[in-house]
Design a protein that fits this description.
about 325 residues; three-stranded antiparallel β-sheet; 9 helices; about 25% helix; Glutathione_S-Trfase; Glutathione_S-Trfase_N; Thioredoxin-like_sf; Glutathione S-transferase 2
């Protein structure tokens, strides 16, 4: 099907007003604030009583989430790691002393990885995408935004979601996902393959990764990649709309990030995703921000909570936003 193009910027759902500051660092992230992320309910958002963010634990899986992580990891072989590395990724091994302690680098046995990338033009404002987690067409677009290291403002559209799914249909005129809006150019469009080509030409070097260039085979493997999740991230769980979008530092290929994104979609929580695949300069930005890099990392401007650890993030989201 042909993409739907618009030369004017599409309106945002539920009247959020985004204000995006230009990056102040060479490799900075887009910073956004929103006056309103969802319909006002008059309900205040507070963290669970006595809540304390957990300490980050590298390469640790909470026992009750083991099967979830295994199921989410099935995507890696089906998609051959697409969404794990950014455009132009390269790596070399250097001595531990070659990289200062103030710079993020993965190391082991006295050796560190020096990772670089060749990214395209950076958009001033985040790309906006209406989608849901368990859709293979949506996954393809998420993989491309990860490869291009783009920050994306996601408006989750789970089945029976009362806010963003109806709004996306109203905006674009179709019951179809994903639906992308680029506020930098005024372009709004359907069709995952067309969105991928648009993003590659506008914010990359014009090339589309092989695993996103195989037509039907790409869609089939994107679907197979989600077999282990049993449709998670597709149906709405009644929730309290947040006044402001949450922020998530994550990347598409990570199973730990995947299970958090599923819950964000089910609760219909809009979120600004800072993509942090291997080679992303934003790994250094997060490292400088909190003194540690690990994904996912959640920032909730509605409560002030900032935290690592996927299992605990899920508990926090459900306790704070799900209507019990």
């Amino acid at each position: 099907m042909a993409a739907v193009l618009s030369s004017r910027a599409a309106p945002l759902p539920c009247s959020p007003v985004l204000s995006c500051a230009k990056p102040t660092l060479r490799h900075s992230v887009v910073r956004c604030t929103a006056q309103q992320a969802g319909p006002s309910t008059g309900t205040s958002i507070t963290p669970p009583p006595g809540f304390k963010p957990p300490e980050p634990k590298r390469f640790s899986v909470r026992p009750d989430k083991l099967l979830d992580i295994i199921g989410a990891s099935l995507a890696l072989p089906f998609r051959l790691g697409t969404g794990a590395f950014v455009l132009g990724y390269s790596v070399s091994f250097v001595s531990q002393d070659a990289i200062p302690s103030t710079q993020y680098a993965m190391g082991f046995a006295g050796i560190k990885l020096k990772e670089t990338s060749k990214l395209g033009p950076r958009p001033e404002k985040p790309i906006e995408i209406y989608e849901f987690e368990s859709c293979p067409f949506c996954r393809k677009v998420r993989e491309m935004t990860t490869v291009l290291d783009l920050d994306v403002l996601f408006y989750p559209c789970p089945k029976n979601g009362p806010n963003f799914r109806p709004k996306a249909i109203q905006m674009g005129g179709k019951r179809q996902f994903p639906y992308m809006v680029d506020p930098n150019t005024g372009v709004a469009m359907y069709e995952s393959d067309d969105i991928i080509r648009y993003l590659a030409n506008k914010y990359g070097d014009g090339t589309v990764p092989p695993m996103l260039s195989l037509g039907l085979l790409t869609t089939l493997t994107a679907g197979f990649a989600m077999i282990g999740r049993g449709g998670r991230g597709s149906s709405y769980t009644p929730s309290k709309p947040p006044p402001l979008p949450l922020e998530l530092w994550a990347y598409e290929a990570s199973p730990f990030c995947k299970i958090v994104r599923e819950v964000l979609v089910e609760l219909e929580l809009p979120h600004l995703l800072h993509s942090t695949a291997r080679g992303s300069p934003k790994r250094q930005i997060l490292f400088e921000k909190v003194g540690h890099f690990q994904a996912p990392f959640l920032e909730d401007p509605n409560t002030g909570i900032k935290m690592f650890e996927s299992a605990e993030i899920i508990d926090y989201l459900k306790t704070t936003y799900a209507i019990q």
